[in-house]
Amino acid sequence: LDFGKKRGIKLPADTVEGLLQHVSYNEPITLTRFLEKFTYFMPAIVTDSPASSVMWLLGMKDFYSSGRALHWAMLADFSVFPSCRGDLTPDEVVSLVNRGLQDGERDFHIKARSILCCMRHMPNWSMEVVELCKKYQNNSVVAIDLAGDESLNLSSPGHKAAYEEAERCGIHRTVHAGEVGPPSVIKEAVNMLKAERIGHGYHVLEDQALYKELLEREMHFETCPWSSYLTGACDPDFKKHPVIQFRKDQANYSLNTDDPLIFNSTINTDYRIAMEYMGFTVEEFKRVNINAAQSSFLPEKEKKELLNQLYEAYGMILSTAF
């Protein structure tokens, strides 16, 4: 609202409450309609240098204020190109976001890293995204991601070449797959793009051979229960959610918020769902947080620091593997 007013950009409402009615929602809609929500507020912050930096700093403040005992790590996953129409280049966008994250690290004592996200419908962007990952590899950026319409084939030369280059340069790789798409999308992400983590991945359970293979490989699934309900990715009955099977099988997965603004939520929302409907105990919450730390894309030294802090907070003995 603030940047929209300063720049003379008309928004669908002129109060926080009014704008939230357009941006946030609490009942299931399709993934496509969820993505449309971004069109309400993105015009106010794209092309604006202060906005690009300040929005991430404020996001870290929200993260810090959300009540966790361990204010240690957050992840910013964003697509560069929709954020750089007009006077900002993709390089400038990444630099500005890094500045906001680094200011947040200083002010709130949180480790913050970013992942640069390619979009399925724009394979011609992907190589430039990985080049930005390479440039900023030792300056906040830790990985590359791919998101968007899962019906689009991943075999595009643009995506494949970008991920091959990322692997060659030691850039970590994650892919949104199996959120609403079939297990074949997950198989493509793992085999073709060499994904180290899978965003969501719920529909892997429809291919038991693939699921067993990924369990054995300890593939990490970034699950988001509240998000999956609101986007219609899973059965709306939380007692039938794929996370329950992941829990029973001791899979390598974590609990995440996805998009707190649009979903009007915090991590506590997902924790509450897991506790009330999915049979989570305190020990399982500890386990998934350790999963998240072990599967994080932090440099090894910082990963070890994070694991040490978690094991100490949980009263556990640090594994000799770390």
Structural description of this entry:
By secondary structure, the protein is α/β, with parallel strands linked by helices. Helices cover 49% and strands 12% of the residues. It is globular, with a radius of gyration of 19 Å. About 2% of the residues have low confidence. It is an enzyme of class 3 (hydrolase). Its cofactor is Zn(2+). Belongs to the metallo-dependent hydrolases superfamily. Adenosine and AMP deaminases family.
What oligomerization state is this entry in? single chain
Number of β-strand runs: 7
Largest sheet: 7 strands, parallel
The rounded distance between the terminal residues' Cα atoms is: 45 Å
Q: Specify the overall morphology.
A: globular
Summary, kept brief:
The protein has 322 residues and is an alpha/beta fold. The protein is built from 16 helices and seven strands. Its EC number is 3.5.4.4.
